[in-house]
Write a structure and sequence with these properties.
Blueprint: E1 8-12, E2 15-21, E3 28-32, E4 38-39, E5 41-43, E6 47-53, E7 60-65, E8 88-89, E9 114-117, H1 128-140, E10 145-148, E11 152-153, E12 166-170, H2 177-189, E13 193-199, H3 210-213, E14 218-223, E15 228-230, H4 235-252, E16 256-260
Parallel strand pairs: 9-10, 10-13, 13-16
Antiparallel strand pairs: 1-2, 2-6, 3-4, 3-7, 5-6, 7-8, 11-12, 14-15
Helix pairs in contact: 1-2
């Protein structure tokens, strides 16, 4: 079927289509919060596919590899309502009413006034929604670009975002994907660009299942300063991170990415 991205759970006309890169598995089972479980069909290159008729946005699911009792989040989960150790949730990427069709983006890159902002500490409430309400003040004092520190989900309630494990899932501690989209839309309405900080040099240690699905993610040369180094010589690894970069621009209208610690990539 036609897909937006090569991996992940995507809404189809008659259900949800799942596609996972799991070259370490001989069998991959989709476990939906309500039974039954469904075996995914293997495909070339270490991929597994399944179309689940009747499934809709909001469904929660995980995967079981080779009959193990352990359940793992989708590597391309768009949301983890209970964190990295919980189920993934099917998200409709068109759940937001965008109003930024006239936004032209940054027109004078050398004349920007930037504000680096953490999703949880920028406001007393610590949410995307509260941050959106604060945007008029930032625009009024002359901020033209906001650099949002990493929002990918991580284990626990507090963190800077640099040990994220669900790189497609906006951290549930700060709100929902729709609320993050609303934040970006509001910024654009005020003439403020949004650049997202992303971490492509390691995964956080807690709740990381990527090496279970695909040991190919781990570089053979050993760890870097932040954790296990990643092997970008692997096509599936490159696909994962290129898809992630496109995803933040496409589904969240971010104006650009700040890539953390490029010397470790």
């Amino acid at each position: 079927m036609a897909r937006r991205y090569p991996i992940g759970a995507e809404l189809a006309a008659d259900g949800v289509h799942f596609r996972v890169w799991a070259p370490a598995a001989e069998q991959l089972t989709l476990v939906i919060e309500a039974p039954p479980a469904l075996a995914l069909a293997p495909a070339a290159g270490g991929y597994f596919n399944a179309l689940v008729p009747g499934l809709a946005a909001g469904a929660r699911y995980r995967f079981r590899l080779d009959g193990s009792r352990d359940l793992h989040a989708d590597p391309m989960s768009r949301f983890q309502p209970d964190g990295p150790f919980g189920p993934s949730q099917v998200i409709d990427p068109h759940d937001s009413a965008w109003t930024d069709a006239g936004w032209q983006g940054i027109t004078a890159p050398a004349a920007q006034v930037s504000d680096e902002r953490h999703g949880g500490t920028g406001t007393r409430a610590g949410t995307y929604a509260a941050a959106a309400r604060y945007l008029p003040f930032l625009a009024d004092v002359g901020i033209t670009t906001i650099e949002v520190m990493p929002v990918n989900d991580y284990a626990g309630r507090r963190g800077w975002g640099y040990d994220g494990v669900n790189l497609f899932a906006p951290c549930r501690n700060y709100g929902t994907p729709a609320e993050l989209r609303a934040f970006v839309d509001r910024a654009h309405a005020l003439g403020v660009a949004v650049i997202l900080d992303v971490v492509y040099n390691h995964f956080g240690p807690a709740g990381n299942s990527h090496f279970v699905y695909a040991p190919q993610f781990r570089a053979k040369g050993g760890p870097n300063d932040w954790g296990d180094a990643l092997d970008y010589s692997q096509p599936g690894v490159r696909e994962f991170f290129l898809t992630n970069a496109a995803y933040w621009i496409d589904e969240f209208h971010c104006d650009g990415l700040r890539i953390d610690a490029t010397l470790a990539i």
